[in-house]
Amino acid sequence: MRAPLFWQNPPEQPGWQAHLLKPLSSLYGFATARRVRKSPDITPNCPVICVGNLSAGGTGKTPTVIALIEHLRPQNVHVVSRGYGGTETGPTRVSERRHKAADVGDEPLLIAAFAPTWIAQDRAEGVRAAENDGAEIILLDDGFQNPSVAKSFSIVVVDAALGFGNGRILPAGPLREPVEQGLKRADLLLSIGDENAQDHFLKKWGPRVSVPHATAHLKTLETGMDWQGQRVMAFAGIAHPEKFFTTLRGLGADLIRTEALSDHQPLSDALMKRLEIEAMALSAQLVTTEKDAVRLPPSFRQKVLTLPVRLEFDDKAHLSEVLNRLTLA
Hints:
Elements: H1 16-20, H2 22-36, E1 48-52, H3 61-72, E2 77-81, E3 92-93, H4 101-104, H5 106-111, E4 117-119, H6 123-132, E5 137-141, E6 153-159, H7 179-184, E7 188-192, H8 195-205, E8 213-220, E9 231-236, H9 241-250, E10 254-260, H10 269-281, E11 285-289, H11 290-293, E12 305-307, E13 309-313, H12 316-328
Parallel strand pairs: 1-5, 1-6, 2-4, 2-5, 6-7, 7-8, 9-10, 9-11, 11-12
Antiparallel strand pairs: 3-4, 8-13
């Protein structure tokens, strides 16, 4: 199993490593502050909702984007993403049939099943392409610290259990910019987690939240699969694989073995063959996440079960009111 970065593993107070790296964090924070002050290259005619974060690594942006797509129907929603890990530079409209995760990134390929999705290293060019293609609303997947596109509404997503870590900027902590500085540009903070995680987040970070705060949680989709007592070997190449493993245990699955891979790690034939052999020796079923499933080699897609999850907003009425004001403006 991979070793976590020191700031990904509480305690949440800065340790000696964070203090040692403070000069580098200051430089990183200064560069981010300069970048976000730049004027946008494009101001689209349609609303642009940015779904971003203050922390590096997974906070739940992709489930949030998918939930917003569903929430905003029947309007013509397009998604613009950078396409992390893909070889395409864009602007390119993602095709589930033509593209692989290695071309466009696993997250855009997953999102493309729900709405027209574009990848572009130059986000302004991606937004132009989406608007020219008839987008009525654009969801900007990440890009909160990127000033090239004028945003109509910015949502900062945070994992309620992890919060903002030790509160330090990269590389001394998980943050791309200070909490107070980032939230000044945000319109909404969305914390994702169960009730215990939300309570923990409010106690630790509540006094520093200066914008409207909404909550949500992840819920597994009913697929007809009975996980109770099922012998499984689970693997995941996401930011926090242990959360996926905990979810499976909560469903009653018997986790015989787990394999935590690097975030976005390619699932080569050799790697998958090794996992298949291990699972067979343990009489266990291979299981992974939706994001990992789009990176599976074709020959393994029928051999690996997927556990899909969806984000549910805890106060849909309030969210609808906010989004309606934005889209009708």
